[in-house]
Specification:
The chain is mostly helical. It contains ten helices and two strands. It has a two-stranded antiparallel ribbon. Belongs to the Lgt family. Its main location: membrane. It is found in: Cell membrane.
């Protein structure tokens, strides 16, 4: 895509904030914003989940199917599911050839990072195993995690923005940014990987849609529509909402360099392909939840 940059375009380009990806350095130990984003997402999600569990009126038969202690114990499970699933998913979906050629790359999380779809699969496995071990209805377990998941998505995308990664396609919109800063260049051995062209800040689009908007939709469903009384509804709406959000943003996001566009197109990306089945899965979950609720009231 070629963009003609006029003086007016250049004047309108927003400066990319020069934020050090390392939040805190303690001698040889460096704590990155990306890691803190995961911690913040998990802890705030845990706090909100505890509030949902405390409110029995939100649940079927006015009783939450799990306790605060269950949520406390689940933190480690979900953290492992997110991290292991996210990394393995990225390798399988986006970077398999590179890892097969250089296996040590599998643990180099700075090379590519994490995959949401892999993290979702890892978290789903963790939820299923934890629910089974603790005799918690699986769909209610899925629902409570789905209700808080947008919190983690929001912080994760903000961290992507700070790192100057997963940038958007070249554009001339007034809010375009050049994703080069001294810290980004230093982190890539003196090279600005996004190049000098102004691009969509697609990380912020995702933070807003997948994070804020989707959280508000699920908040309304749980608090006002009492969707937790129909186990599987919140999970289904989350999966559908994320899928449509991701597909939409993929039209503005630059595809991964090693994959590019798929099937000879200039628009189809791996993110779209992985998100399409989620729509069908989410619709099935919602329909199943409604049918199950109807049988209980029949």
């Amino acid at each position: 895509m070629t963009i003609l940059l006029t003086s007016a375009n250049l004047a309108a380009i927003l400066p990319f904030p020069d934020i050090d990806p390392i939040a805190v350095s303690l001698g040889p130990l460096s704590i990155h914003w990306y890691g803190l984003a995961y911690v913040a997402g998990i802890l705030l999600g845990w706090f909100y989940a505890r509030r949902l569990v405390d409110n029995g009126k939100l649940w079927l038969n006015d009783t939450a199917p799990m306790t605060r202690q269950h949520l406390d114990d689940f933190i480690l499970w979900v953290a492992l599911g997110i991290v292991l699933g996210g990394r393995v998913g990225y390798i399988l979906f986006y970077d398999l050839d590179q890892v097969l050629a250089n296996p040590i790359r599998a643990i180099q999380v700075w090379n590519g990072g994490m995959s949401f779809h892999g993290g979702l699969i890892g978290t789903t496995i963790a939820m299923f195993l934890f629910a089974r071990r603790n005799q918690i209805p699986a769909w209610s377990m899925f629902d409570i995690v789905a209700a808080v998941a947008p919190i983690g998505l929001f912080f994760g995308r903000i961290a992507n923005f700070i790192n100057g990664e997963l940038w958007g396609r070249v554009t001339d919109v007034p809010w375009a940014m050049v994703f080069c800063s001294p810290h980004v260049i230093a982190a890539h051995n003196g090279v600005c990987p996004a190049g000098p062209d102004p691009r969509h800040p697609s990380q912020l689009y995702e933070a807003g849609i997948e994070g804020v908007v989707l959280f508000l939709i699920l908040f309304i469903l749980t608090r006002w529509a009492l969707a937790l009384k129909k186990p599987g509804t919140v999970s289904g709406i989350f999966v559908i909402g994320y899928a449509f959000s991701r597909i939409f943003v993929e039209f503005f996001r630059q595809p991964d360099e090693q994959l590019g566009y798929l099937l000879g197109t200039n628009w189809l990306t791996m993110g779209m392909v992985l998100s399409l089945p989620m729509v069908a899965i989410g619709l099935w979950a919602v329909i199943r939840a409604r049918q199950a609720a109807a049988r209980q009231t029949a």
